[in-house]
Amino acid sequence: MSEPTDPMGNFHDKIDLAEQMLPLLGQLHREKNVVTSIFGRLLENVTAIDIIKSHRFARRLLDEPLPLKETLPIVQALTAMDISTASIDIARLAQRYRGVDEPLERFLEQELADIIGVKPEQSSTDVVLYGFGRIGRLLARILIGREGRGLGVHLRAIVVRKKSADDIDKRASLLRRDSVHGPFNGTITIDYDNDIIWANGTPIQMIYSDDPASIDYTAYGINDAVVVDNTGRWRDEAGLRQHLQSTGVAKVVLTAPGKGNLKNVVYGINHDIIDDDDEIITAASCTTNAITPVLKVVNDRYGVQYGHVETVHSFTNDQNLIDNFHKGPRRGRGATLNMVLTETGAAKAVSKALPELEGKLTGNAIRVPTPDVSMAVLNLTLDKPCDAEEINTYLRNVSLQSDLRQQIGYIKSPEVVSTDFVGTTNAGIVDGLATITQGNHVVLYVWYDNEFGYSNQVIRIVEHIAGARPVVVPKRESIENL
Rounded to whole angstroms, how far apart are CA atoms 186 and 296? Predict the structure, then answer.
């Protein structure tokens, strides 16, 4: 009997290469404010095992795992280069370098010409979280994890209503421990004298108030801040404009669909409608963010005549745990015991980001007894026929190579279930094995972490407003070229 061999090669050799890479990735982040990835999978706060898994993920594009011996020299070279803030996909650089007959350093100088020797403006934008619920705490985790060299966006304060004498202890504990997303990656301490939560060296001021219009943020050294309202209490311009009456506030972002003429933004689709003089922006809903990118690329390639969106959505804090009075229909029934049919405005909201789909979509929702991760079923009639393999190949390429890579993910596995998508950063992930086609009719199944994926979309809007989105290297493909 022959000796068994690991199809990925010697695992201990891979661990050695990954461990060599770890401190270099940290150095790039701390000293150059550079974020690295493997075909979009971020290499932030990772372990050696995470790095190996990311390289194995590359087989979706290369049809084989990406060897660490190809990427380690690139990371080593990057640390010695005079580069500025950027998001660098080292897998795509490795892929492009294959077959190139010139020194790696010269190749990288050509590929990274736009960010070599460029000195970024020494500016930063203060961020205040108004509310600290499910979305607020995930926004905090993301912002804390992106602290770099003092550039970009920085979490400065959290505003809540004080509910008990030990309020700050409970808030810190909820940030530290999460039943769905796991423990906070780092350390958290409390400065009781100054009402400050320290998270991985970042001081976060707790401000206790129930009036968004009367806070003097400048008293805490906060100026021209972006306030992210994640309470859901105010969704129209009059309500949200209260934040702008406080001293030290420049912009407001709402983590919900806005009412009236407020701009509803799905990052990656219509964030270019944000003007410098816009004071209030809304980030639409988690479902709208999940389905709009997929609907856009399908409509661009095949045309959508009409369709129906059915969301299978995890229960939310708005529902009752057990049967009790609720002002909304059906939501008073126990969330952990029932599937609850309810309405969703996500299908209609799509047209605010994609006017070409106005009046073409209907929608409904079923709340189910899971705490996180939802699914949208897109039942579409197209202008022209397609088969499952064709549309799946297109969506797979979009997810790996296009400028919508952060919004659209793709997976093709017969064993994945909802918990496998907890913590995913894409707005939505197409399940390729579930795709159904018949003539010009297609049914697509899109998973989405309605908490974490959506929170990442909100942060992308905040960074865009602050002018803090990093340069992407190499440049991604436009949808038209796929």
Answer: 38
pLDDT tens-place string over residues 217-246: 999 999 999 999 999 899 999 999 999 999
Give the pLDDT confidence score for residue 269 in this predicted structure: 97
Exposure pattern of 62-96 as b/e (b: 16+ CB <10 Å)? Answer: beebbbbebbbbbbebbeebebbbbbbbbbbbbbe
408, β-bridge pairs: 428
With the CA atoms of 233, 235, 240 and 242 taken in that order, what torsion angle do they form, in degrees rounded to the nearest 10?
-50
The pTM of this model reads: 0.94
Query: What CA–CA distance (Å, rounded) separates 373 from 389?
Result: 26
- Among 83, 159, 286, 375, the active-site one is 286
Q: Please say if the pLDDT value at position 327 is more than 70.
A: yes
Please answer whether residues 437 and 387 qualify as being in contact, where contact means their C-beta atoms are separated by less than 8 angstroms: yes
- CATH architecture for segment(s) 287-450: 2-Layer Sandwich (3.30)
Task: Summarize the confidence of residues 83-107 as an average pLDDT.
Answer: 93
Q: What is the pLDDT of residues 408-424, one digit of tens each?
A: 999 999 999 999 999 99
**CB-based contacts of 354: which residues, under 8 Å, 6+ apart?**
269, 270, 292, 295, 296, 299
Amino acid at 45: N
Q: What per-residue confidence (pLDDT) applies to 6?
A: 62
Angle, in degrees to the nearest 10, between helices 11-32 and 68-79:
20
Percent of the chain topping pLDDT 70: 97
Residue 196 region, left (φ>0) first, then alpha (ψ -120 to 50), else beta? beta
* CATH topology for the 124-285+458-481 domain: Rossmann fold (3.40.50)
| Annotation marks residue 386 as catalytic | no
Burial (CB < 10 A; 0-12, 13-18, 19+), residue 278, is middle
Provide the residue ranges of all domains of the chain, joining segments of one domain with +.
11-115, 124-285+458-481, 287-450
Task: Provide the CA 433 distance to its chain's centre, in angstroms.
Answer: 24
Over pLDDT 90: what percentage of the chain?
A: 84
* Model pLDDT, residue 351: 92
> What's residue 93's pLDDT?
95
Q: Residue 323: how many CB atoms within 10 A of its CB? A: 12
- Say if residue 293 is preceded by a cis peptide, omega within 30 of 0: no
Distance CA 435, CA 378 (A): 10
